[in-house]
Structures are given as structure tokens and as C-alpha cells.
Design a protein that fits this description.
- With 227 residues, this protein is of the alpha+beta class.
- It folds into 2 domains: 81 residues, Aminopeptidase (3-Layer(aba) Sandwich); 134 residues, 3-Layer(aba) Sandwich (Aminopeptidase), CATH 3.40.630.30.
- It is built from 5 helices and 11 strands; from the N terminus they run H-E-E-E-H-E-E-E-H-E-E-E-H-E-H-E.
- An 8-stranded mixed β-sheet has the order 4-11-5-10-9-8-7-6. A 3-stranded antiparallel β-sheet has the order 1-2-3, with helices on both faces.
- The protein is globular, with a radius of gyration of 17 Å.
- The mean pLDDT is 96.
């Protein structure tokens, strides 16, 4: 198995196991960290294990190899086709921009980070997502207007995530600047950067390709509710 196959499961059973809640063949991140969940395999046993974790009325955000197929006891409440992209080893990383100042975000910044994520919807983001890795931000007139950081971690790989810019500050290259710095820091740890993006987000995909990312696999993001 490749380290990025069933990547949420891999993260919760290796480098990020301290954040895991488990039942039989299912794992999930602690709720205030992120809503991401996984099972060993999308079998009846896998879904039953996930149901025991979520409880009645609970939700689970999962990555699937194929589009979700309706099954008793579950409702699909959201999701989208995804690309998983990797910046190959040996790819020249973009240079950092010395003219734009960024800061490393801390727990004191969490309310603004949650607010920015709610506005721009880069993916699940909770009050403890910051604990998953380094997060960098750009401020203008004291307000957080852009950020990017690290989320899933498996042996040899770290995910670039929560890439978002306030709608009033787009077109200034902030996403590229922050992602470049995050990618450099990941490589400095002898690791490879990867990310997930909606397949219909053409603008973001074009940026990621300019930064050196290449498509690895196609996945499906599904938010499921236990009836």
C-alpha cells in the first residue's frame, strides 16, 4: 500500500494516532480537531464500525475511491469529487517572496482562522485544527486575510491544507506565497508535500500545478450522516 492510499486511515494509525478515536475498523479525528474519518475498508463491517463512532444523527467526512453508493442507515449530506495531488521529489520549489510579510499563527489566532475558513470554505476546519501542524498567515491592517498550513501527516508526506484568502484580498498572490513557504518547510523535514482539491476548482488546480503539484489519484469526498 502506498502511504497516501486511504490517507486519513493511514494518518490516524501512524503519525497522528494521538488525535484518533477508534472503534474496530473505523477511526476519526477528535471532533474539535477536524471532522475527517476513515475506515479500513468500505465494507459492511467498516460502515458498522463508523456508525458506532458517530452515533445516531452523527456525521462523518470520509474520502472514498468511488462515488458514495446509498446504503441503509446513512444519508449523504454533502461532498464533491476530489483530486489528490503530490509535489514530486526533485521538483524545484517556488522561491519565497521577501516583500510579503507573514506570521506563524498560534492559538490566539484561532478565532480569526475559524472565521476565515467559514467564509472561504477550504475544507473542514475546527478550533483545534491548528494542532495538526504549522499554519502561516498574512495580516493587513491587523486582520487575518490569508492562511495556509499542514493537516494530514503520514510517513514521508505532509498535506498542505486550509489554503484560503479573504475575498477582498484575492489576486495578490497570497496563496502562492504562503503555500511556497509551507512547502519549503515540509521539504526541510525531508518530506513530500501533497494536497486535496475539488475537481471543479479550476483556478486552484492551475495554481497548484504552477507550484509543481501533479495529480496522483481521483477520490470522492463524502459527508455522511447516521440516521
Amino acid at each position: 500500500m502506498h502511504p497516501l492510499d486511504n490517507v486519513i486511515w493511514q494518518a490516524l494509525t501512524t503519525r497522528q494516532s494521538e488525535f484518533a478515536e477508534s472503534f474496530d475498523q473505523a477511526r476519526r479525528f477528535q471532533k474539535d480537531v477536524t471532522s475527517l474519518c476513515a475506515f479500513l475498508e468500505p465494507t459492511e463491517r467498516g460502515y458498522e464500525s463508523l456508525a458506532s463512532l458517530t452515533g445516531a444523527g452523527g456525521t462523518a467526512a470520509v474520502f472514498l475511491e468511488k462515488a458514495y453508493q446509498a446504503r441503509p442507515g446513512w444519508s449523504l449530506v454533502g461532498g464533491a469529487p476530489l483530486l489528490e495531488m503530490v509535489c514530486p521529489d526533485g521538483m524545484e520549489l517556488p522561491a519565497s517572496d521577501p516583500h510579503v510579510e507573514f506570521v506563524e499563527l498560534t492559538r490566539a489566532d484561532v478565532p480569526e482562522m475559524v472565521e476565515l475558513a467559514a467564509l472561504t470554505r477550504p475544507g473542514p476546519f475546527g478550533t483545534r485544527t491548528l494542532e495538526l501542524g504549522t499554519y502561516l498567515g498574512i495580516r493587513r491592517e491587523g486582520k487575518l486575510v490569508a492562511m495556509a498550513g499542514e493537516r494530514l501527516k503520514v510517513p514521508g508526506y505532509t498535506e498542505v491544507s486550509a489554503v484560503c484568502t479573504h475575498p477582498g484580498h484575492t489576486g495578490k498572490g497570497y496563496a502562492r506565497i504562503l503555500m511556497s513557504e509551507v512547502m519549503h518547510r515540509i521539504r526541510d523535514q525531508d518530506e513530500t508535500s501533497f494536497l486535496h482539491v475539488r475537481r471543479d476548482n479550476v483556478r486552484a488546480i492551475a495554481l497548484y500545478e504552477r507550484l509543481g503539484f501533479r495529480e496522483r489519484v481521483r477520490l470522492h469526498y463524502a459527508v455522511l450522516r447516521r440516521d
